[in-house]
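Quick question about two entries, pasted in order.
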Amino acid sequence: MNAEAAVERKGFPQSFWVANIMEIFERMAWYGFYALSSLYIMGSVVEGGLGLTSADRGIIQGAVTFFIYLFPFVTGALGDRYGYKKMLLIAYSVLAPAYFLLGQMKTMPTFFAAFMLVGIGASIFKPLIVGTVGRVSNEKNGSLAFGIFYMMVNVGGFAGPLMATFLRSQGWHYVFYASSIWILINIPLLLIFYKEPPMPNEAENRAKSFSTIMREMFEVIGNIRFFVTLFVTLVLFVLGSKWFKLEEIALIAAIWIAANLAFDFIIKVSGAKMPRMRLGNVRFLLFLLLLSSFWVAYNQVFLTLPLFLEHSVDSRSIMQGILSIGQSLGLETGPDSTLVRVFQDSRGGVKPEHFININAFCIILFQVIVSFINSRLKPLISIMIGISITALSFILLSLGTSPVVIAFGVAVFSFGEMMASPKAKEYTAHAVAPPDKIGLYMGYFMWSNAIGSLFGGILSGHLYQRIALDANNPTLMWQLFASLSLFCCVLIFIYHQKVGKKIAAEKA
């Protein structure tokens, strides 16, 4: 309580700002590659890409990002026990060489292995940085704290791709070198300036054994039986999508779940002393499940939109406008000029990543203002409004191939994201998580991103191929993602009425 009072009196402590700066560099590393990953994975070998298929891309992106968001519940709990600073140092020690290796691998298996190494480092990093923000803020300033944090996320998300798009004109390997360098910068920041954030019952937490930490981790979700059942189900979707149709994988997963339920029924009827599946914090897990449908749709801006822009949108008029502005400012605009290398694609239009970067640019400009408005709204209400706005953005994307409409759609999407994403983190940290288990709960919060990334990647690969390319109907594809967002909004409204109000009353 004293720590909270200090935060309220004096503003945010040094660790908050150091964590935000480290987040900028980590996001520069991640988005510097990830925003271009679809283009790199499917790019021709002659031009330096991997030359893989859309389905391969969906599996790689879906599986690795799924892993990144699945395992932070472990690393978050370890951070609560052993200290955030030690775990962050481990994260950077994994990430820096992993990004370097990523640029050296040229086959699907080796690239996937290097990308998974990046996933391990990122899964350590994520809950500890978000947990730092949660620990040094409270319910009164939490909206501002997570708003500032989210703005910093997008400073890195904006600067990373902008620099990477210039570097890739020199050669793809420079993109990976840059990502390694951004991570290395974080190491002295961590060692010199970062201080362990305060924790309630710190002495008691530090005295916990490793087995106790593991037991508490599973108490949130239920027990190991339930975890294994869920984990195998998700792995079926991750790996099975390479060899089976989506409906076939769904059938196999349904059989697996039914077999586990039948086994539990047999145990109950027979009275055998064997563990049955058990759910833990049901209300929190339900919230994560509902939120995951939002992340499925959210990921399409980063996974599907770059390919849609490259294959279906003629942005040469926008590029000509950029060159005209450059000429009026006295800049060089010839074929070998910096302006052309940074902005122009091989068809004479604007590179897709610059359309995506509108998202980060809007968040940098408006996130603090949106957070100020958000502070007057209940978290679940703000989340619903945000998801509704993202649905509107997908409808805009379905209207056609005008580059102006696409750019406006991305801008609208950004405001929906600003409403929903920071508030969902704040809701978890301050309305759900016990004060001494914020790292653990923020790790579990990433599960919604894990499921969203997994199925977002799979759907991106399959729907883009089947609907946008084979059926030549990208309008329907964007309408489906809009419908998914609206469906998620309705489910969260029901959750707010039936569950959210009870949680708020108990908290009060």
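Here is the second entry:
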Amino acid sequence: MSDAARPGPGEELNLDGPPVEPRQAATVIVLRGGSDHLELLLVQRNPAQRFMGGAWVFPGGAVATGEGDGDAAHRLAAVREVAEEAGVRLPDPDALVKFSRWITPAMVKTRFDTHFFLAEMPEGQEVTIDGNECVDFRWTTPRDALEAHRNGLLLLVFPTIKHLEQLEPFPSAEALLEHTRGRDVRPVEPKVLGAGEEARVVLPGEPGYEQEQR
């Protein structure tokens, strides 16, 4: 079984109690390349962190209490998290383009209901990682990131891999944004089948998804 289909670092399975209510969260896929090409920003989580330590991810995090509810709260959280983790200041939360929504599997103890947004890198800005939660960054094409992961050079987790696979076919940042604007975004909730070394993550429509977990 591919490591890509396993739960990520620090994702403990909840095998006994009822499912944990997922925390609301937001993530931004920061793009550059205009009409010429497509690159995106990945940041590396601090390896010392228990949850997803060392993984390369899109900047993001949980919605804060004071940011309210609903879509506006996710947009505010997205802008804040990119500024905190990557030093990138996105000028307008309303300009973010909703790309996807992923809900952590019910069998995982730490759960998030994450809204993924697209945003172009503002002109004249530079990435500056916080050095605490995130310790490194890179601009990469989706294909190069996936290839580095397959070669053991880049630790990626399941949601990041699946998003990179969706992004790979687009020839440019502009083409991706044009395709995504106005699209109906439906929530995706993977499932974890099995436990221990046999645990694997499956998506809706894949074999085993409809089977009972408990």
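Reply: Residues 17-188 form a domain with the Nucleoside Triphosphate Pyrophosphohydrolase fold (CATH 3.90.79.10). The first strand starts at residue 23 and ends at 32. Hope that helps.
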